Amino acid sequence: MAEMLPFPGKLNLGVRAHDFGPGPADHLAERIAAAGFGCVQLALNKAIAGLQLEAGDLTPSLAREIGDAFRRHGVKIAVLGCYINPIHPEMRTRARLLEFFVDHLRIARDFGCGLVALESGSVNADYSPNPANQGSLAFHELLVSLEWVLAAAEAADVTVGLEAVVGHTVSSATTMKRVLKTLGSRHLKVVLDPVNLLSTSLAPQHQRMLAEAVDLLGADISVVHAKDFILTDGVLQTRPAGHGQLGYGPILEFIRHQAPGLPVLLEEATEATAPGCARFLNQRFEEIIL
Q1: Domain-located, residue 225
Q2: Has residue 75 been placed in a domain?
Q3: In this predicted model, what pLDDT tens digit does every residue of 55-114 receive, in sequence order?
Q4: Domain count for the chain
Q5: Cis peptide leading into 194, omega within 30 of 0?
Q6: 78 to each of 87, 91, 94, 102, 231, how far by Cα in Å?
């Protein structure tokens, strides 16, 4: 008898909660569920109205209150987004940011979540690209920061999700693989956003790059971000899924055959456009199954 897939014929689709917000947690979860989505990435200060949390502010009671609101509406918090700069050039600021991230790790289970995500940072305080981001010093400083937060993740038995972005310290699937091998922690996984791996010069090769990323990182991918891109007059611009030029084949094949039920979270999609993006992705997924 064939094994039953968790989401036969369909993707496990979700959204970033702040793309439907900000708003009160219960109202936000209700609207996300009504739009047909079963999971979210939750960035607290962006999504929940009235929150301006800093290091030391996050409490188990607040986490349970927000988590309960999403649970009541059947929406899983798949990812807590805490997109700090882990190599911020000012050391006291970096320490506060890392402590804020660790707060999320310690309390993630109270939200009903086991994954907290971040990007790899920039040597510029404003997170803008800098050639030094691809240098050995930036890479070393990232490893030091990740080692520190991974100790907290291991203590809490939760996972750190690292996302690669062109122009950041981890700018490619190859560099991501190097981080994973160097740190060797089962508490470090990958948040894969295919479009974030692209630049103007790399966009024409995106199908090959995506296939390589899946081949290199597949066993460690915990979440996929789904958006699209267009390349017009040498300028790359992001778009909602299905409104651009991205070939989704390699990632959908990977999900179908190796990772059924993997959360796929829409980006660049509003409350109005997200259902159409979901229909597009599920149609492409069904084509692969057929």
Answers
A1: yes
A2: no
A3: 999 999 999 999 999 999 999 999 999 999 999 999 999 999 999 999 999 999 999 999
A4: 1
A5: no
A6: 25, 31, 26, 17, 31
